[in-house]
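Second opinion, please. Please look over this fold, written as tokens:

===
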Amino acid sequence: MKAVWKFEIPRDGVIVMPFGAEVLQVREQIENVCLWALVDPDERQMETRRFILFGTGHPIPSAPMKYHGTAHLKGGMLVMHVFELVKETS
């Protein structure tokens, strides 16, 4: 059985979540940037994942990242784009 869990993205972007969680959506909620992920609530192994927020027009480094969504804050005056740092496999 799976469930959808909400995670508020902290300033450092680090979120610990059950291993294999699938990010479904990124949105704003009460002026916070949040993500919702499909998780196995019985999964005992946790993983640390890193999310980075970039404002529109700001430079984005060419690091391996995956885009997850955009959040509109302050009545749409601040738009943040959420990327996840992807671990490179060799």
